[in-house]
Amino acid sequence: MTARTRRHVAVVGAGPAGLAAAAAALRAGARVTLVDAAERPGGQYHRMLPEQYRAARPERLHHGWAAFDRLRRHVLGHPRCAWWAESSVWSLERPGPGDETAPRVHVVRGPADGAGRERLVLDPDALVLAPGAHDRVLPFPGWDLPGVFTAGAAQALAKGERVVIGDRVVVAGAGPFLLPVAASLLEAGSTVLEVLEANPAATVLRGWGRRPWELASQAGKAGELAEYTALLARHRVPYRTGRAVIEARGDGRVEEVVTARLRADWSVVSGTERIVAVDAVCVGHGFTPQLELPLAAGCALREGFVQVDGDQRTTAPAVLAAGEITGIAGAPAARVEGLVAGWAAGGGDAAAPEARAARRRRDRARAFAARLAAAHPIGDGWPGWLRPETVVCRCEETTYGALCRAADAPASAAARAVKLGTRAGLGPCQARICGPSVAELLARRSPPPDLAAGGHRPATPHHRPVAQPIRLGELARPPKENL
């Protein structure tokens, strides 16, 4: 069998899920094209220093580096793998009705800020989508000040550039991701004043403590937790539950934050406010899956994530999904989902022992994801932090007061009318940052649509025909097709 007659699998995303999918597809005998917008594979979890740094210890700040490095070298060095770095999928072209082939994959290749990028088109036999997720940050007064970072951005600067975001930093939000972020900042040279988990200890313990014997399969996570706990203790960094940053203040940039104790629903306990002097703060309230490509491919969603079957197949023909777009569960879960998806995409035998073992591991990882969601939920009371002048859409500087006035006006109460009237979500980020929060705030002020009476479901901010920015000049040039 020649390389051109082998089954061709395109994998979008080279993080833990995408890299594992590529490896499994290669093992199944397929030809693989691995596409990622970054210069080097690894995603956010294994964000690597630029080669120009010639780092003596590139594994610093990384868990599982040795296994990742082996997998990276195996996949990128495989004769049947084409590695497309600095390449963005800007559109997926669905086949016609009744056609069971995979979508055409439209790629623009080259540095995002560079000239002369080329357009390419892939016609794979199967497509694995593993684009990952980005930070979700709930708005609060002052969150638009310079010096307020998302948790992911702070970690990316520390891991990928060894740049510290500040000398005195508070890390706040919800979820276990706060711990590796604090560790990265400490290793990069920042002083972390405290780590604040918004959920009270009772909520966290109840979520993690239910059916504790199920945690036996996640021994690696327990080891990571022990490492982070020891690091925080060594640097005397307090970890406080039931407390959050509810305001950032400063003249031109953040100079201090106001923290407060929260109830279980995240409403503020009056009188518990405390002012902390900082020069930076990083906040993260979980993650939002990057759904632009799955929706463009025609994949159905379930509870905000891509719906998949036991082999990670989506509802769209020849399209599989893995990683955070199917549920937020962390890098180990993303890797095993990638293995299942890549093996199926490559035509591997579903009854093979390794496939059955991977599916069992995947099911355990999904149980871990459910536990994670129960232990670190987003409380319903967070809008109580907001004031009328609080910016909720940073791109368009739309305030909470303007959003509420538009939502309460009878003539403009529909979500689309509010969006057009306030421009919330219409800025450069195209609602990637503010979209979930704006949608939640609007839902609280408007009754759900009566679908039986002809009402329309609110539009998702992820539904867009052009998934990534592309220049008009690039569109005008003919692409290289059928690769």
Please describe what this structure looks like.
With 483 residues, this protein is of the alpha/beta class. Helices cover 31% and strands 20% of the residues. It is built from 13 helices and 22 strands. The strands form seven sheets. The protein has a five-stranded parallel β-sheet with strand order 3-2-1-7-20. Strand 10, helix 4 and strand 11 form a beta-alpha-beta unit. It is globular, with a radius of gyration of 23 Å.
List its salient traits.
483 residues, alpha/beta, 5-stranded parallel beta sheet, 13 helices, 22 strands, globular
Concise synopsis of the structure shown:
The chain has 483 residues and is an alpha/beta fold. 31% of the residues lie in helices and 20% in strands.
User: What can be said about the biggest beta sheet?
Assistant: 5 strands, parallel
Q: What is the 3D shape?
A: globular
Give the N-to-C terminal Cα separation.
18 Å
Mean pLDDT: 87
Overall number of strands = 22
The oligomeric state is single chain
What's the SSE blueprint?
Layout: E1 8-12, H1 16-27, E2 31-35, H2 65-76, E3 81-84, E4 87-93, E5 104-109, E6 118-122, E7 126-129, E8 133-135, E9 148-150, H3 151-161, E10 168-174, H4 178-188, E11 191-197, H5 201-209, H6 219-234, E12 239-241, E13 243-249, E14 256-261, E15 274-277, E16 280-285, E17 287-289, H7 292-297, E18 301-302, E19 305-306, E20 319-321, H8 331-345, H9 353-375, E21 391-393, E22 398-399, H10 400-408, H11 415-422, H12 435-445, H13 472-476
Parallel strand pairs: 1-2, 1-7, 2-3, 7-20, 9-16, 10-11, 10-16, 11-12
Antiparallel strand pairs: 4-5, 5-6, 8-17, 13-14, 14-15, 18-19, 21-22
Helix pairs in contact: 1-2, 1-8, 3-4, 4-6, 5-9, 8-9, 10-11, 10-12
